[in-house]
């Protein structure tokens, strides 16, 4: 059993929140740094065409991530609620079945992707050098996508099993290994985007090995045991139901990226595709930090909801919103001041592309303070096992409003308005976030 100082419904809420916040933010920052350096290696050593190629294959990552987050966050949230009720055996069973389901689904999905790779790349509009580079990247990466997905699943459960530091250590170690392998494969061996993909894949194997050490630890506060279990239809459906908002976040992002890629490549040109790719790669700094804050509050909200401590649930939420909005304001300010310098780390000797990319990055980061509110309130509903409201918010901000803006704003204000889509989507969604939150408060939450 956990010691009292580790009990999620006994220790002071601010202390407990910070115990989860610091590893979550640190881990996400390191992950951002690794994505940044990975992009830097590709942009500087392979070329701007390679950046466009990586942008085209982001949807593959997104599909695997969407399902992994649905399984991991859905299962871990339900597990935390049950453990808050002191149903420890039920919590273990949820973990075991979710792990079995994950292994089966991701192995099958990897095989499907392998046999449909060429057809999907052509459908997304890839041709010439971008097609060749995209295909090379995926050929090296596909064997590791099951491992990549299991990292998300295991991290979610281990974090909720009162071991957020190990999740952080795994992420930090994976990032460092990725940088080392980038240096070896891209710089020394001149393997191009294939080397970048191989570095990413091997780093996931390192992360899995570190995460698995959780189940061989002798620390008494860890309650989960590593074992597979026969899947029951009811358990799998409920895990997916609770995790649906996380799935929709990534699914919406995937669809949006595909649509943006097709529209930009066919109607605006490769420069716009490259600018969009850079805005995504730099924008993950904002997105991942805000996701780190939401990850910190989710176990506290779920556990205390299960334990019937509504006051601690509200305290956790208020702390997360405060940190999220403040972080978003800082990031937006930095982007306004330094977006051009950030872009010049990746692109040299092309002033037109630098200006275009700077504009895209600036507008993405301006959405960060509002994005924080939407992400954290969506996480709040999911942590309470109320996936319907969370799913609606995820689809509105990630799909409906952003694509509406993509097709309407440029027709009125010109091509520069493409980048306004990010701010438009978050601003429209925040009204729904506040409405749903106030409605839930009136119901007694």
UniProtKB/TrEMBL annotation:
Keywords: Antibiotic resistance, Cell membrane, Membrane, Transmembrane, Transmembrane helix, Transport. GO terms for cellular component: plasma membrane. It is a multi-pass membrane protein. GO terms for molecular function: antiporter activity; xenobiotic transmembrane transporter activity. Signal peptide: none annotated. Pfam families: MatE. The chain crosses the membrane at residues 20-37, 57-78, 99-117, 137-154, 166-189, 195-217, 247-268, 274-293, 320-343, 363-383, 395-413, 419-437. The keyword Secreted does not apply. InterPro entries: MATE_fam, MATE_MepA-like, MATE_MepA_subfamily, MdtK-like. One of its GO terms (biological process) is response to antibiotic. It is found in: Cell inner membrane. Belongs to the multi antimicrobial extrusion (MATE) (TC 2.A.66.1) family. MepA subfamily. This is Multidrug export protein MepA. It comes from Vibrio astriarenae.
